[in-house]
Protein 1
Amino acid sequence: MQRIVSGMRSTGRLHLGHYLGVIQNWVKLQNEYDCYFFVADWHALTTKYDNTENLRQDVIDVVIDWLASGIDPEKSTIYVQSLVPEIAELHIYLSMVTPQNWVERDPTLKDMAKILRTKEAANSQISYGLMGYPVLMSADIMMLNSPLIPVGVDQIAHIEITRDIVRRFNNIYKTDFFNEPQPILNECSLICGLDGNKMSKSYNNDIKISDTEEVTAKKIMTAITDRSRLRRDDLGHPDQCEVAFKYWQIFGDAEQVNTVKCECEKGSRGCADCKRQLGALVNERLHDIRERRRYYEEHLDEVREIIRKGSEKTRTEAQKVLKEVRNIIGMY
Ligand code: TRP
Ligand code: SF4
């Protein structure tokens, strides 16, 4: 079985964007590949180094959301980045061979710098650690020498840098030890936030996997609809219904979508009723996931044991790679 590695920053409880965009893909991949999924808590630290009180809980919350969503620890290896310190050593070696302008060019870094500048002065500097974001990510990938990396489009630039670093390392040390990783693009229905922008915790427009049914239903009542529609019997335009109809297309089957479309266009469907039904549908879809989430919340020892076992197994694999790397470079 081919090996796959992918990670997510520990940002706390995950939302439907994570679920539909990334996790659902992982759940499929774990049947075909030898999957390693990790919580990137060092990457979280690149921007949250001065706000660490929730760091530990954030890691647990991410893992619980994964398990609830169907990542199966019998099939996949789940670990935490900082529990595999070998990654930090590999990061040092990679940082030696990575030219400064490669990290400076990283477009994602430029976006993060923009966000940081809007914060208080104390936190607005790009740290040395944040500069190294793509190098650390390369270390994550190269640590398991994985040929395939499932990611979203926003991470493609990082995979490109990893490929460059792999080539440079192999070149400098005259080796073919490291694989040039290929991205597997997540095939996903990108779900927007309730206000039509990208779904994000920081925009406060998200639906969390862990939200209760009541909260979910309430949130969906705030979803943007066809703005030109003022009265219940105005003729609607599903194609201009910015959020609610898009959600129908993601969560409903063909017949349901068709019914909504026809009734909306005829003016026989009010937006409030429409969103009430939609809320029920979304809750139905999330029902089993939320049941499993509750189970793991009540069995935290099990979660911690999954993390411990997965991290230990990953360390064993990482140590093999690191031994080879030290040898290739010529370390003492
Ligand atoms: N940067 C990724 C994100 O923000 C998380 C990540 C860290 C990652 N290391 C990785 C993803 C290695 C894939 C492979 O989502
Ligand atoms: Fe959107 Fe439904 Fe309202 Fe039509 S009836 S505009 S699909 S919310």
Protein 2
Amino acid sequence: MANHLFDLVRARMPAAQSPFIVHRDAKALSYGDLEAMSARLAGVLVAAGVVPGDRVAVQVEKSANALMLYVACVRAGAVFLPLNAAYTLAELEYFIGDAEPALIVCDPSRQAGIVAIARGAAVETLDAGGEGSLMQRAQGMPDLFADAARGPDDLAAILYTSGTTGRSKGAMLSHDNLASNALTLVEFWRFSRSDVLLHALPIFHTHGLFVGTNVVLLAGASMLFLPKFDADEVMRLLPRATTMMGVPTFYVRLLDHAGLTREATAHMRLFVSGSAPLLADTHRDWSQRTGHAILERYGMTETNMNTSNPYDGDRVAGTVGPPLPGIAARITEPDTGAVLPAGEIGMIEVKGPNVFKGYWRNPEKTASEFRVDGFFITGDLGKIDEKGYVHIVGRGKDLIITGGYNVYPKEVESEIDALPGVVESAVIGLAHKDFGEAVTAVVVRAKGADLDDRAVMAALEGRLARFKQPKRVFIVDELPRNTMGKVQKNVLREMYAGVFV
Ligand code: AMP
């Protein structure tokens, strides 16, 4: 029977003995192992009473078997629901109540707490080494499994958005959302069976789970599967890789590593960055050190990947490239939805087979995020230049309105970042009694640099209109970031709240 996503994986699968994971926590895994292990785990799901359409919530550390569980869910027709291992029990209670999973798989240390909030769901364990009650049950299961029938529009996964404002929402992703995007990326980034991806991203997030894993699966390629990012370990394994996908912090940390040289990366085919803005400086420094231009792309939980710098041709620092084939992007006036001409800043909207089916059990929120012609309102502000490249200037909710003027944080950050002695900066709006919001800069100073808040403010005079110049500058050692390397502006706004009132 047809299973849209797994049939595609199987159709493109290399011979059974071909490598799938060549380095991981325990031993290597072939494509034959992948088929057998995912079949056994799918058998466990069915035995636990999971039927097609049921959610399987998974809060575990990264392991190859956790990835096998994802594939097993696809084959059993279940909806894979990965959760950040850092979530507390109180947070889990919300996700469990919202998603009503039939089965929850968790770390053994969490089992007792989760059973108490499971609302009747079965609970199995899987530890950081990839062992636990789930794997014990799998031992008794057959290596063959009759895949559940699933069409293109049936759900394969629900990923909860990180929810920096309000409750996080479950983004419903169909078999074809995942399949179509992975196929596009395989072709666009020229993945083949001879590729070896260095995989150091978490697998509870779209980047490591879908971009990384699905691209490898649909290319019949293999991967070096690291439990987490570690610059020494990445440098040690790099000679065996052909490609790497990372968040910008990976590249920043590797640039600090003495082993990163042109010779050490000469054999690499591709470095991809996404999930957060890559500083133009990082792009330039990487190019100078290694001779490779990092390929930056743009996506989000709800849409998979939308745009990418080209494989051949100009990979322009500070841009995320044109829309991928089959995907449309446009810039609109946020309130009215009127389409804006090239070069003007507005809301980035996208449409294509990659865009999700809506928010789980939240039809009002879904309706408010789509235009009537089917474009999804991303919440990111940006522009499309004459060459068709998309530039992101920040999240809509980070836009600062000061004295009635709009200030795009990225514009101010770019000016500050260009100053000598500055590593990076984050510009936020803080409540101000006269202006509504006041532009405020939080600046990371380079080691040993002689720079203070007044010097930053003075340097910006004449470079930015007065209303865009920060009213206060705070010098810090580092910016708060989440696990995907995104600067947490909500944390900064809380830290400095009340400065102007
Ligand atoms: P998430 O849903 O966690 O993947 O976050 C998606 C958001 O990350 C997007 O809406 C953007 O705000 C941001 N993002 C992803 N890729 C990039 C990029 N290359 N440059 C700037 N921001 C990005």
